[in-house]
Design a protein that fits this description.
- Chain B: This is BOS complex subunit TMEM147.
- Chain B: InterPro entries: TMEM147 (IPR019164).
- The structure holds two protein chains of two kinds.
- Chain A is of the alpha/beta class.
- Helices cover 38% and strands 20% of the residues of chain A.
- Chain A has 15 helices and 20 strands.
- In chain A, strand 12, helix 8 and strand 13 form a beta-alpha-beta unit.
- In chain A, helix 6 packs across helix 14, helix 8 runs parallel beside helix 12 and helix 10 crosses helix 12.
- By secondary structure, chain B is mostly helical.
- Chain B has one domain.
- In chain B, helix 7 packs antiparallel against helix 8.
- Chain B starts with a helix and ends with a helix.
- The chains are: A alpha/beta, B mainly alpha.
- The interface between A and B is large, with 49 and 43 residues.
Amino acid sequence: MLNEADNLADIFRGGLPYFLIITLPILIICSPCLASEFEVMAMTKYDVNGENFGSRSSVISLEAKSLYTWNTGRHCVLARLLDISLNDFNRIRQKAGGLIIMLPDDVQTLSNEVKDQILMLEQQMLTQSIPIPVYFASFTKTLEHIINDITSTTIDNNTQDKTALGQLLLSVNANGYHITVDGQNSAANKNSKLASIQGEFVPNQYAMQKENTGDGNNLPLILITANLKTFGIINKYPLNADSAVLMALIEIFSKLHTTLSTTPKYRLGFFLSDSGLLLNFQGSKKWLEIDDNLAIQNVEFVLCLDTITQSLTSNQPNVLYMHVSKPPKEKTSISNYFKLLKSIAGRNSANLTVEGVHKKINLADSKLSWEHERFSMKRFPAFTLSSARNPTSPLRTTMFKDKESHIVEQLVTSVKNIAESLACYMYKIDPLSDIFKGHAAITEDNILPYLGIKAILQNNDIKDGFEKYLKNVKVFYDKPDEREPDFMFYNGINPKLNIYRVKPAIFDLFLTFAISLYLVGIYFAIQFFPKLYGLISTSTNISIRCFIKPSPNVLKRK
Amino acid sequence: MTLYHFGNCVALLLPYYFTYKYSGLSEYGAFWKCVQAGCIYIFTQLCKMLVLATFFYSDSSTNSGEFNFFAEILRCSVDVADLLGFALILSRIPGKGHSKLITAGLGWATAEVILSRGIMLWVGARGTEFSWIYIQKCLESNVLLVQHLSTATLIWLFTRHDLNKALKPLVSILLAVTIFKGVWLEGLLHILSIGPWTAIAVKALVAAIIGFCSLNIYACLAQQIGI
């Protein structure tokens, strides 16, 4: 067939269409290659008590605009976290089509004001339902460049008044970016469950028999509780300092409980749940609702740990707050413990003070402020130890963390204070003497192994730790109700963010115009070529005639 | 960017068609000869690949940004096979006068464009992402067309016995310059860190100079033997 073809057109008359039938699908399957691809983290999405929180949608395919130029719902805002103010965010939340935030490179190096601003924004985002898709990208040079690009072109546009031609040229020259995130709309996870774990020290049986107090269950109970934060603004594990303190306390007091001579006259119980402030302390709620729960009988007091260490230091005073729902009366267990803690904290570190904060439970509020309120509502004497004064402090839910060394240093002091005050309380010791010294001294080694724990269900780490030291270890699972779920999580995978550099349609028209000019030029050049050849032929003829034996140099000069 | 952008890029390859149409090849019905030349191009490239894969150490770990002088020389020395391929085309494909050379050069260049740029254009220029590289590559193909036409001429001159003895070394030098263009031109562009647009202009200039020299020599010989 090809042999007879004298021209391009002849081929198409033959069997070539059949080949095309085979090759065209292959060509179509060869999909266009992808552009700049970034890993992004989707903002969390969860429901508590029928209220929606977090970003409620996930698909973006929009034009990227900077913080200063977006104006419709067809724009996706691409900005640095540091540049976004609360007002900006509220406007974007209501009107824009999507939001992609680049996290700063290093949060620790920022100034305190900026840190505060970030924390405020983070809290603002966490406490409301956001109808637009929101994604977080970690800091990369490429993304930084793109953000600079979209920001700078707008500044040029605004500052200069241009003629129509100038505007046209500018729009031809402008770089546009198209953003796509192919996240599927995440479905509610019907199997979402919250785990909580309990355990207690059972006093040495020999000690019990000696004193004829029967079995250990009659002893007054001191309960220590903490929450594990399993998510923040993104689906990552924030710093879980409280649970690290709890685990460290278990380890420290296990030594005292196993020794016959130091068996206390108290039961020490521990309770750790996967649900913190964001989930309205669902774990402790369910745990308290369990009927005939032997673990909570004859309660001396409940000590809740919440944000015992600030994960991101800002210029806040070094104070440990003791939050209660009603002011403790004199001679009650809580006021005794408060005095002990105050004197011990004052002795251990000079600049640390302990302050009591009283806040009534607001039953009209759908969300509780502190975990001890759950226990107080059940008439258990309870209080929370926290470094945050205000229940609405953004530090309680932040994802950002400081250097580990700094955190550990603070944690050692906290553990020391709590452990010593508890020991003083249980053994009725004078708070002025050192209790944990020598081989029992509290150091970083007590805390460091526990800083990495993430969730109760993960790797069974916590369960193994509880079972190693404690008795009556039980894990509870809380599943959302089918009809009226108390809480709901959503399945989500972190999708890929693609940013394509695009040009406006006018650019392609312009390009076509330029190319046709070029082609016309080439056309005339080819038409002119025979003339050029003739010219060269005559000139070489002359040179051949002039020099019988022309040297290459002569030719070259031509 | 879009199919329209792909169309733009393809439009930049139209000079190939112009060359075919207005050089008189279409009147000779030389289409099939061009296809044959293209087949010989494919054959040559396959041989080259075999040699490269068998005898040359390819270090895939080196960054694409760096210019490895020694490796480039080795690679270019294999490009001598290109000259053999041209010689094969010229000896096998019958043709008369100018059209023979244009057939060889055009067939070779077209096959190269389709095989080495086709997939890239189809996959890349049609994609959402805009990049100047596709327009640049298409412009560069135009330069390569001139380049291959002059190479074909030089090879033809090299194989002629009736070429003036004084011109023989010049033809050899020009051939060597063409072959090792990958080393000296790319190296120079890399050292001077010239941008892609200027690089294309420099390449076009070099191709024009080589083409002009070969045209001169060819005109001289053509006058002598009377075609």
